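Comment thread on ticket #2218

A.B. wrote:
> Attaching the input chain for the structure job we discussed in standup.
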Amino acid sequence: MLRKVLLFVVLIVLSSIVVYNPLATSEPGANPQDPAHEDLTRVAYPSLAKIPWHPHFIRPQDSLESLFGPDWPVVARFNRVDRRHVYPGMTIKVPDDIPACRSYTPLPAEYAPAKGHERYLLLDITEQWLGAYQDGKLRFSAPAATGATGHETPVGVYRIDARDQNHSSSLYKTEDQSDQYPMDNAMRFHVGADNVSYWIHARDLPGKPASHGCVGLYDEGMQNRVYGSPQVPVLLDSEKFYAWAVGDSEYEEEDTGNLELLEEGPVVEVRGENPRYRK
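C.D. wrote:
> Ran it. Output below, let me know if you need it in another format.
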């Protein structure tokens, strides 16, 4: 009788392990606590409300290239993230129709305040996106990383007054603390009352507001130089915006690559507020 009771207890314990411990064999998911907000599906961009997409959990063998082939830049831009910041354990948004999103931009094709301006930059903080307008029409646009909570990028209408192709931060260092943080292709658009300068420049894009107030753009050339990754630079938005806004073709003086003050630089309009996070 005792043996039967013990056998019955053992069977109950074993069955409870199978029934109540499904996580051992279930599909992995993002950490529900996730203090770093590594689940990018939580970042709510208004323009994505009408675009069907689904979450994808990044496994150890995954990369944007292996998952999406030549369309990996589409998914990277959709998430406002660079390749260095896509890592196992995080979750990203994947559009259901990737080819339809190849020309995705949350900014309007025409923008009335930009009419009459040969060069006009519109930064939408809520969308984390920067657009280049010429006479009111959008020429091109790209994801951006603006100031994190507590260091928000100031809203308003400004004008680029300086350029510095080889700029580096005087306040912040690289991740390994070995050098000052690089800010290639930098364009200064505002100096605050506290004498803090705000620039548009090359930086890492982690898929959310992350800077101390500056505006960061893709530049895998800078990342390759500083971090050795990615090996083949593809996304070079900071170079494109710099050349269009303050390059040699726009000014008589040759760009020395160092800090130069500018007159009548392009207008920079900053609007919106940091995107909200879904629970």
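A.B. wrote:
> Thanks. Noting for the ticket: The helical segments are 2-20, 64-68, 72-79, 220-227, 237-246.
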